[in-house]
Specification:
This protein is α/β, with parallel strands linked by helices. Helix content is 24%, strand content 15%. It is built from six helices and eight strands; from the N terminus they run ααβββαβββαβαβα. It has a six-stranded parallel sheet. Strands 1-2 form a two-stranded antiparallel ribbon.
């Protein structure tokens, strides 16, 4: 029998740091109330590929259903490869819309159709993961791609065990604003939050290293 999230660093990201679901929902509502309001009554658009009716993008096949000029664009300091588990429902995925927000994002499905390269940097709170801020300057500046895992905690083991010698990294001092049932710390972020916060972290560190004479660690 497969053990749920057996690779998670439960000392830092475990249940002891979790928050009551009602408190998390209240926190999420307060955060999203500060964002521009979306017209939830807008009409759905028929997807040209699968003929389904959806808003903004098709939840079935991932096709963008609005003009891309209306979608804000983000330039990431590194490329982001999102591994999406085939059994993760598109309706629940926070990562799928990221492909419309940045040209630096690529999404592939698991199981893999082609073999991935080894020694990938994987953004996951693994027991052996290093904080991004602790990565030496020389190594940090050479990172060209980061991998994010998009699935439930139950499915992460399958993906991790099929990566060749991955190098795990994790973020620090961020808490999730997404409300969802989980028995982990608030530091366990949704995939799209990892993308945004990792962007801020890497940009800040790269700017700092490139504009100062900070010695290598």
């Amino acid at each position: 029998m497969q053990i749920r999230d057996k690779y998670l660093d439960k000392q830092v990201f475990g249940e002891q740091n979790a928050q009551d679901n009602n408190q998390q929902l209240q926190k999420a509502n307060e955060f999203f109330s500060r964002l521009p309001q979306v017209n939830l009554e807008s009409e759905k658009v028929r997807c040209p590929k699968c003929n389904s009716l959806h808003k903004t993008y098709c939840l079935k096949c991932g096709e963008l259903l609005v003009d891309k000029k209306y979608i804000p664009q983000i330039h990431l300091p590194v490329d982001l490869l999102v591994i999406h588990h085939e059994k993760e429902k598109h309706q629940k995925s926070s990562a799928l819309p990221s492909q419309f927000l940045s040209n630096n994002v690529q999404i592939i499905n698991y199981p893999f159709k082609t073999e991935l390269q080894s020694n990938l940097y994987v953004l996951y709170p693994h027991q052996s993961a290093r904080y991004v801020k602790d990565i030496p300057k020389e190594e940090l500046m050479n990172i060209k791609q980061i991998v994010a895992i998009d699935c439930t905690w139950y499915q992460t083991n399958q993906i991790i065990e099929n990566l060749d010698n991955p190098r795990f990294i994790k973020l620090q001092d961020y808490e999730t604003y997404f409300w969802r049932y989980q028995h982990h710390s608030l530091k366990c972020l949704a995939t799209i939050e990892n993308m945004q916060n990792n962007q801020n972290y890497l940009l800040a560190l790269m700017y700092y290293y490139s504009s100062t004479n900070t010695p290598l660690k």
